[in-house]
Design brief:
By secondary structure, this protein is of the alpha+beta class. The chain has two domains: about 60 residues; about 90 residues, Immunoglobulin-like. The strands form two sheets. The protein has a five-stranded mixed β-sheet with strand order 3-9-8-5-6, with no helix packed on it. The chain is built from two helices and nine strands; from the N terminus they run ααβββββββββ.
Length: about 170
């Protein structure tokens, strides 16, 4: 199992345990006490509000730095135009250099398509949505030379499964 999958599984487990503990605490706190102290309950409500806001902020800061979106091509980046159509990818040029950022400019002639890039060993590299009448730009730097497959990740018709392209990353 790769390290990212382990990290996700452990994180999910921690979140589930915390969720169960909070659920049990809230369930216990809802049992009707004999004396209702409204001031204490109002104070507890404010405390829970602070806890929820802090938890949401922690989730935001724990994930925001891993978001790859918004990256733009630096000067000197290689530009690859990709035109998707039923049932092919027109990729130009068909080779790029490793270690230099690649700006994929993606368009579609007909319907929505998915642009999924995979290594020769079928390891997922990146993906983007390709929409008609819109150009999507995805920037990625390939460290490993080799032949990469492009698969359509959005069902686009009867021959969707045959929509495969490829390009080469040179040393």
């Amino acid at each position: 199992m790769n390290p990212t999958a382990i990290l996700i599984a452990v994180s999910y487990g921690i979140v589930v345990v915390i969720g169960v503990v909070l659920f049990l605490f809230l369930w216990r706190s809802t049992k009707a006490p004999r004396d209702v102290d409204e001031k204490r309950l109002a104070h507890q409500e404010k405390g829970w509000l602070v806890v929820v806001v802090l938890a949401l902020l922690a989730l935001l800061f724990a994930t925001i730095f891993f978001t790859p979106y918004g990256e733009s091509a630096p000067p000197g980046a290689q530009v690859v135009t990709v035109e998707a159509q039923q049932f092919a990818f027109l990729i130009s040029p068909s080779s790029v250099r490793a270690g230099v950022p690649v700006a994929f400019r993606l368009t579609s002639k007909d319907v929505n398509h998915g642009f999924g890039v995979y290594t020769e060993d079928d390891e997922f590299v990146l993906q983007a949505q390709v929409v008609p009448e819109f150009t999507t730009e995805v920037v990625h730097t390939f460290d490993e030379p080799g032949r990469y497959k492009v698969l359509c990740l959005e069902y686009c018709g009867l021959n969707h499964h045959g929509m495969v392209g490829q390009f080469e990353v040179l040393p």
